[in-house]
Predict the structure.
Amino acid sequence: MTIEIKKCTFEDAHKLRDISYETFNETFKEQNSPENINDYLKKAFNLKQVEKELSNIYSHFFFIYLDDEIAGYLKVNINDSQSEIIGNESLEIERIYIKNKFQNQGLGKYLLNKAIEIAIEYNKKKIWLGVWEKNKDAIDFYKKMGFTQTGSHSFNMGDEKQIDYIMTKVVL
């Protein structure tokens, strides 16, 4: 089993869009209406939006490969790119998405460690993320990795307002 993490480039926009659609849909389609899922996918992961995010110097994307196949990806944000005003001493993990067929193989831990490595590189004191209150598996994973709930915020999924827990981990 070979695991490799590679930084995404602008030329990876199509692959990033495709895996974003796939992983988001796999993870959330069962608990949301098809209309809300489709509305969100069209807004968040259309090619123009993905290219805009890839062009942002304060956002970084990384693919994780398992035996030369893209298994998932990581998106982190620093400074003004964070989706909440948490502070310049923080790094946001906006997305850790793993394809269903690659889950429970430790890949999320690799991506989380990559985020910690980036936080240290940029002299950030803590990392934070938002996780849907109904995503019990993800919440349990983050708790196991040393995160604690420090707040919450609203997340719009189509016409439905959902709650994300904000979870934080000190790294320095």
User: Anything to note?
Assistant: The longest strand covers residues 160-170. The radius of gyration is 15 Å. Helices lie at 13-28, 34-44, 47-55, 107-121, 136-144.
